[in-house]
Amino acid sequence: MFKKLENHFDQIEKQTAQVLEVRDKMFEFLPQTYSRNIVLKRLCMGIALLAIQTTKTCWQTSIDDIIKHGSASPEQCYVALVLLMYMADMHSTHCHD
Question: What sign has the CA pseudo-torsion 22, 45, 78, 61?
């Protein structure tokens, strides 16, 4: 999912409704991945990339939404921290390349 988003986002980003639908589906899938660490991390990487790339366009509340997501349970708090970590890492990587 991450690689597909990374490689084809320029084609996807113009379709705001679809971007938000993908985001919602990814968040819905998160609880199913709590016990599978690698799947959880890859899904978080995809959501983080989506958040980074759409924070100035169709998902302007991405950081607030991720923080709110993390307030519901310890598992969701962990996921929110992982998402924010990946967002910071991606931002740093893209800004310094």
Answer: negative
Count the neighbouring beta carbons within 10 Å of the beta carbon of residue 3: 11
> What Cα–Cα distance (Å) separates residue 61 from each residue in 39, 51, 54, 65, 96?
25, 9, 9, 6, 24
Q: Where along the chain do its domains lie?
A: 16-95
Residues 42, 1 contacting (CB under 8 angstroms): yes
Global pTM value: 0.83
CA distances from 37 to 7, 16, 18 (A): 24, 30, 27
| Pairwise CA distance, residues 66 & 2, whole Å | 18
DSSP symbol at 13:
T
pLDDT in tens, 24-63: 999 999 999 999 999 999 999 999 988 988 888 889 999 9
| Residue in the structure block whose two tokens are 């985001």 | 23
Q: Tell whether the torsion through CA atoms of 54, 58, 67 and 24 is positive or negative.
A: negative
